[in-house]
Amino acid sequence: MKRYYAPALDRGVFDAEQSHHCSDVMRQKTGDVLSVFNGEGVEAKARITAIGKDEVKFEVLAKAASPRAAHPVWLAQALTKKTSMELILQKATELGVAAIAPLQSDHSVVQVDDEKSDAKLDKWRKLTIEAAKQCGQNWLPKVHVPQKPGEFMADLPKGAVKLIASLQHEAKPLKSVLRETLPALKPGTPIVIMVGPEGDFTPAEIGAARSAGFAPVSLGKIILRAETAAFFALSALAYELMD
Ligand code: SAH
Fold first, then answer.
1. CA distance to 44, 53, 165, per residue, from 189 (Å)
2. Which domain-ending residue is among 24, 48, 65?
3. How far is it, in rounded angstroms, from Cα 51 to Cα 22?
4. Whole-model pTM above 0.85?
5. 31: helix, coil or strand?
6. Whether residue 243 has pLDDT greater than 80
7. Where are the alpha helices (DSSP H) in 157-202?
8. Is 199 close to ligand 1, i.e. is its CB under 6 Å away?
9. With contact defined as beta carbons under 8 Å apart, do 46 and 58 qualify?
10. pLDDT tens-digit series, residues 121-164
């Protein structure tokens, strides 16, 4: 069954973009039954009731809710080159992260200025919607506005588990850190993992993260590309958090 996204599921109407996709691209007809998710864990079986010029309406036939993850995972990803950043957003959505916070690291080759920030954010959010549509994920990650690492670190929920993927020799293996930390964790406590850009975090950024309570974690002896490091860390977390 084709999947569509409608944040206000109970209103029974797709926005202009989903309507266009549904009627013009997928050529759905009135009476077709499809699957609609709201990005907040709810998925519905729905039937198209009207196809207008810019608006497709539907009625909900049945709803089901996917539970929220016991521990929300936040990926704080230093901005990487466009294609790898887009891949990271896609894979992080598939892996069920609760939030993606793009960080303007001093070593990020791409910097997003204020003017382009809205367009970028819009593009990234659309990418997460497309990824969630395709893989059956009913929870959409919140995509934050790009921030400096310092701003991001100053504004984290109390009690969050804070990890930074680090190549420095004092970094402890992610596996042992998770096995020490997770069993005692209260449900709902966020786990934040920071991953650096192609050129790595600067020593000052790593120092600031450590002062803010981030534990440096190693992903093994091999220097992974930024996107591989993000996939590795998120997959390991998903594995350790699996029911
Ligand atoms: N250009 C740098 C590597 C940057 S890798 C160099 O050659 O040294 C990009 C990011 O991925 C790093 O900032 C770090 O956050 C993460 N990363 C890559 N491999 C890692 C590993 N083995 N352990 C921990 N973090 C790693």
1. 28, 45, 19
2. 65
3. 9
4. yes
5. coil
6. no
7. 174-181
8. yes
9. yes
10. 999 999 999 999 999 999 999 999 999 999 999 989 989 999 99
Task: Confirm or reject: Cβ of 219 under 6 Å from ligand 1.
Answer: yes
| Among 242, 238, 230, residue whose Cα is nearest residue 84 | 230
Each residue's pLDDT tens digit, 177-234: 999 999 999 999 999 999 999 999 999 999 999 999 999 999 999 999 999 999 999 9
Residue 111 structural domain: 73-240
Looking at the fold, whether 104 and 205 belong to one and the same domain comes out as: yes
Provide the token pair at 216.
């440096």
Q: Are residues 44 and 90 in the same domain?
A: no
Q: What is the DSSP letter of 13?
A: B
In the chain, the number of structural domains is 2
- Are 125 and 29 within one domain? no
Q: How confident is the model at residue 118 (pLDDT cuts 50, 70, 90)?
A: confident
Q: Which of 163, 223, 232 to mutate to test the pocket of ligand 1 (most atoms within 8 A of CB)?
A: 223
Give me the sign of the Cα torsion angle 121, 98, 202, 156: positive
* Predicted pLDDT at 10: 92
